Amino acid sequence: MQSKTNSFDEISAVIEPYSELESPAFLQGMLMGTLCGEGEIKEAVWLKRLLEEAKVTSVKESFLVSMHQLYLDAEGALNGSGFELNLCLPADTEHLSFRAQMLGQFCEGFLYGLGLAGKPESKLTGEVAELCQDFGSIARIDIADLSDTSEQDESDYMELVEFVKIGVMTINETLNPIEGSPIMTMEPPTESRH
Predict the structure, then answer these.
(1) Buried b (16+ CB within 10 A) or exposed e, 156-189
(2) How far is residue 109's CA from residue 34's CA, in Å, rounded to a whole number?
(3) In 3-state terms, the chain is what percent helix, strand and coil (to 5)?
(4) For residue 54, is pLDDT > 90?
(5) Do the Cβ atoms of 130 and 101 come closer than 8 Å?
(6) CATH code, domain carrying 110
């Protein structure tokens, strides 16, 4: 059965009553950061943590359904080939400044999730630490000068989106290496000569 992926607008509508929950991009980033940091986390544990962090005490069923799909999509993307990873960002028809702001919120959420998982930036090393620094820079992106009519700005944004996707997969693979089965090789029988 084909899974139904949440759109930015759908999640926005679902979380609107809960002002403590930042944005769909932040939520997805936080979830993916937590999954990368912990290797795996049960959906109920993540949901409980999310609601506690946001100090939300009761939610509607539509919220739970939407978060369930967000969880399935994130887990599937991180455990798949990486091509399934779609960031929960506004449609290309939205203003570039808003899309860039949401990409920044994804990165902010991702770093927050890593911290919740016990992997704050200060404890990371090598390529993962560098990527997290880059994510921190993207989270502080200056959207004031972005223009919807600039092809260069649009191109730069698209490159940043791809960079973040690859960064997420790299961080996940580094923190949670997949152990492949050892390849069995047939050794030719050794004859003992006396």
Answers:
(1) ebeebbeebbebbbbbbeebbeeeeeeeeeeeee
(2) 9
(3) 60, 0, 40
(4) no
(5) no
(6) 1.20.120.740
The pLDDT tens digits for 129-157 are 999 999 999 999 888 888 888 899 999 99
The CA distance from 41 to 47, in Å, is: 10
Residue type, 183: I
* CA distances in angstroms from 100 to 14, 32, 95, 141, listed in the order given: 22, 19, 9, 7
Contact 180, 86 (CB under 8 A): no
Q: How far apart are CA 110 and CA 36, in angstroms?
A: 9
Q: Is residue 136 part of a domain?
A: yes
The pTM (predicted TM-score) of the whole model is 0.86
- The 3-class SS string of 108-121 reads HHHHHHHHHCCCCH
In-domain check, residue 116: yes
Is residue 13 within 8 Å of residue 24, measured between CB atoms?
no
